[in-house]
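Researcher: Quick test of sequence recovery. Tokens follow.
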């Protein structure tokens, strides 16, 4: 018996049910289901929005260990003190006047976009930060050292003070315009004299006659997301310190005078000690010397951790005369090297290939591809 075509259509659900099936109860059920679906869509949309807001907040918020918010809402704009930022005027005195007003208040000195020429050589004129303050440089703000012939200078001095934060902007040295040939002490930021609880976050220091950043005789110092580029001696020198964290930073293109390291940990005197230092999640690129050098010939170095760093174009890690440095504290680092691919013939071109070498697990002992550890012995008589 042939079935009516409409029966097949109804079985496939392609026609609506008779009007008698659309009772008030079914209609209520349909409305309820519609509300549930709408509520589900709304909840998913809210969850997505919350996720986006969370990601945006996470992207804008500083990484762990970075700058905390100022403790006061007081803000002084350096232009209100007469700074011009025109790249020609000496703005040192105007910026120092803003610093002097904010120091001790927990407030902020704001440096808007512009190029501010700074007398970094004259000791009595150098920019010196006070305690309990933040120096905030806008993203395109540059503090530019005026060319000089001094063996020793600093764009910013942080000495004998506490609870200081420097955020953002660029400190520009004058190595290409330096008027002398001797010395190697021109620094971007010099942290000395018992300074403590200092945070440097998101700052670029470049083209210094000496180091981008320098630490001597200081406690609890944090460098977060900083960049040291094209400095002559070091990206960062640590001479004497207890408690230094370097995270998410870049040290590159250091060259000009030895040791030309990305970071150099090296006491100058027997009484000086470097301890409790963590260097992590940072990049060391194309430095003439080692990415990280640890030299303990003159003073004691202990409790150093080097983890999850990337090295390219330089020897990764050099440890000299520092027997307290443990191999187990140098781990999970990576080295990027370039290797030429084999050619298929004299007329074939092969692109170089970047090879990533992963350091052996830190519990396996020293990985000599990364770490060179040696003792300099006195010659026997």
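Model:
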């Amino acid at each position: 018996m042939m079935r009516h075509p409409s029966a097949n259509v109804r079985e496939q659900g392609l026609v609506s049910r008779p009007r008698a099936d659309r009772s008030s109860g079914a209609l209520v059920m349909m409305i309820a289901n519609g509300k549930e679906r709408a509520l589900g869509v709304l909840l998913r949309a809210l969850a997505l929005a919350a996720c986006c807001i969370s990601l945006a907040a996470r992207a804008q918020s500083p990484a762990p260990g970075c700058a905390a918010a100022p403790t006061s809402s007081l803000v002084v704009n350096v232009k209100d003190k007469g700074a011009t930022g025109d790249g020609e005027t000496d703005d040192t005195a105007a910026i120092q006047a803003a610093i002097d007003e904010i120091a001790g208040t927990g407030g902020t000195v704001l440096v808007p976009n512009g190029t501010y020429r700074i007398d970094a050589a004259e000791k009595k004129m150098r920019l010196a930060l006070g305690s309990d303050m933040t120096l905030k440089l806008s993203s395109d703000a540059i503090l530019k050292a005026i060319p000089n012939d001094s063996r020793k200078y600093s764009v910013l001095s942080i000495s004998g003070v506490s609870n200081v934060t420097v955020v953002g902007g660029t400190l520009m040295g004058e190595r290409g315009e330096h008027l002398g040939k001797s010395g190697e002490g021109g620094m971007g930021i010099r942290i000395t004299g018992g300074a403590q609880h200092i945070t440097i976050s998101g700052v670029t220091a470049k083209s210094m006659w000496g180091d981008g950043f320098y630490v001597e005789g200081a406690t609890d110092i944090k460098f977060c997301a900083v960049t040291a580029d094209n400095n002559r001696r070091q990206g960062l020198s640590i001479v004497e310190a207890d408690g230094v964290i370097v995270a998410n930073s870049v040290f590159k293109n250091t060259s000009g005078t030895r040791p030309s390291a990305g970071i150099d940990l090296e006491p100058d005197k027997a009484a000086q000690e470097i301890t409790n230092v963590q260097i992590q999640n940072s990049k060391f690129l194309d430095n003439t010397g080692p990415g990280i050098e640890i030299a303990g010939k003159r003073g004691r170095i202990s409790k150093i951790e080097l983890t999850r760093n990337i090295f390219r174009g330089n020897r990764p890690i050099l440890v000299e005369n520092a027997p307290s440095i443990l191999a187990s504290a140098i781990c999970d680092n990576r080295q990027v090297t370039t290797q030429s691919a084999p050619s298929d013939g004299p007329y074939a071109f092969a692109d170089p290939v970047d090879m990533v070498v992963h350091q052996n697990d830190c519990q396996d002992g020293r990985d000599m591809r990364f770490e060179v550890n040696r003792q300099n012995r006195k010659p026997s008589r």
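The chain has three helices and 28 strands.
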